[in-house]
């Protein structure tokens, strides 16, 4: 490098060495010529220039491997804390700037009304369960009863049919006896008529005539009795047929057993649905009671607290906010010309202006559009007076774990990220 510098300055190495030797030997004065000024060496200047060039090259190579921007800040999801149920604030347990862990109680609402609602829901659930148990027990009972009704009605139909047959046979026998009695009566009446003529002629004795009269009366009475028996037998047939119709009606009702079972099963299902409804009501009442205790959903620092003791709040009303200390990241708006070599996963050095120190992190994502595309009124370039402007693209960077045990990093702080691209 030194030789190259000498050549660029127009001095050969051997001449430079001779010049140095002459300078060393010429420190005195020549007796004949008198005092003489030694020529000034250019080597220190050349070395300085070379050193500066090397330093500039090293600096350039260092910064050529990094891209940075000062348009960046720390961001995070600020969680708003609101009431999920209405109620009277009994006490507020936190204040602004206070750090809280996840699950810390922030405020307490009066739980009395919700405790009463829970007790009422528990009573309704117990009632619904009792009704469901009764309906469920009725299913097998109905099944057995309807099956017994089918068998009983079938037997009743068969018995009624047998009764009709017996009654019809009795009616037929009564009619036969009536016919025989009528025939005997006709004979007895004819005999009585002949005996009456004979007794008048004294051809027969009075005793024979009296016997003929008795026989005629007896046969007439037998006819009357047999007519009554026949009428009674006919009535028994009618009754037997009525019993058959009744037995058939009972059988038809008993044959609706599947429909009766579906009905009782539907009632049991309805009772079970009522149990589920009552259980859901109880669960909602227990949730509402739980919501009277407002807890921190994340760990962070309390801010923008507006709720005070004794205040009446409504569902959705904002009470305070929690600024996260762990789930934070950096959003850096890089120029579009710096994105050529940027990739997800590249290491990042993050300088935080507030503390004057650097943190490490890595790039996890590049936005799908430039920042102005997410603005309320994106710019329109379809005009005649177009001016090209270098756009900026949001890049998301996360901090490596374990660098902020004291939670010094705050949402909104300005930072300067340096992304190593090579």
Task: State the end-to-end CA separation.
Answer: 28 Å
Helix and strand composition category:
alpha+beta
Average pLDDT: 80
Order of strands across the biggest sheet? 1-15-12-13-14-11-2
Number of helices: 6
State the fourth-level CATH superfamily of the domain at 114-278.
Answer: Helix Hairpins
CATH topology of the domain at 114-278: Helix Hairpins
Show unreliable segments. 1-16, 18-22, 24-35
- Judging from the principal axes of the Cα atoms, what is the shape? rod-shaped
> From the coordinates shown, what is the CATH architecture of the domain at 114-278?
Orthogonal Bundle
Please, could you describe this protein's structure?
By secondary structure, the chain is an alpha+beta fold. Among the domains are: 1-26 and 41-64; 79-110 and 289-321, RNA polymerase II/Efflux pump adaptor protein, barrel-sandwich hybrid domain (OB fold (Dihydrolipoamide Acetyltransferase, E2P), Beta Barrel); 114-278, Helix Hairpins, CATH 1.10.287. 51% of the residues lie in helices and 19% in strands. The protein has helices at 2-9, 13-25, 43-64, 112-201, 206-254, 257-291, and strands spanning 66-68, 72-76, 79-82, 87-92, 99-100, 105-109, 293-295, 300-303, 312-313, 318-324, 328-335, 347-352, 357-366, 392-399, 415-420. Strands 1-15-12-13-14-11-2 form a seven-stranded antiparallel sheet. The longest helix has 90 residues, at 112-201.
